[in-house]
Amino acid sequence: MKTKNQTINEMRNSTKALLLCGVFASVWYTALNIFVPMLYNGYNVASQTVSELSAVGAPTKTVWVILGSVYTLLFLCFGWAVRIAAAENKHLRKAGNLLLLNGIVSLFWPLAPMHRREILAAGGATISDTMHLVLAALTVALMFLAVWFAAKTLGKRFRVYCYATLVVFAVFGMLTGIDAPKISVNAPTPFTGVWERINIGAFMLWMMVLAALLWRREDAKIHNENKNRRRGQTKLVTSRKALRR
């Protein structure tokens, strides 16, 4: 029969494995943004948004949805791991809940694709485009809030890093927002893809940093619990020897 400490250690090891999903999700999404555009002849990473890779009629729509579902699954696992690792830390638990909610929202992206720019400019927008904008705004808000609450945990250096990440979100989110109306009229947006991907990159990096810090914390807890258990066992053996004398 397993002891209480063994059960706790197994749970912590499971949490560590799930935390790695944050790293895998970041690497996977970054890879998608590198390789999928190569399949779209004429697509420009600098001037076009990520959403245009899955737009109605885009040649990469199907592959993006399929591969993107892997990212969503990894993201959900990471959000759950953050929530578990938070334990009694209410701010970190809120961050985990927000990440989970963000992952749930991501499940709806395939149901609300945008149309290509030329279709939008010709007046072909539908409810799908409206829902796409709603999902985009909700996703950004959840990202911002998750980083904000996580900033209140894990020490001063991480807090400063989180605030720097939020500044990046604000600056490049504003630049992306300025370009947004131009997309619907098929006007030039020479750097909107750059602005958006800087924000995405900042969030991917933040996820990896958070995953690494929480993984190290869980590992330290396992080490300390094992050390205390061995110390207790040593004291018990010593006590028994003393009684025999």
UniProtKB/TrEMBL annotation:
Residues 225-245 are annotated as: Disordered. InterPro entries: DUF998. Keywords: Membrane, Transmembrane, Transmembrane helix. It holds the Pfam family DUF998. The chain crosses the membrane at residues 20-43, 63-83, 95-112, 132-151, 158-178, 198-215. It comes from the Bacteria. This is DUF998 domain-containing protein. It comes from Flavisolibacter ginsenosidimutans. The lineage of its organism: Bacteria, Pseudomonadati, Bacteroidota, Chitinophagia, Chitinophagales.
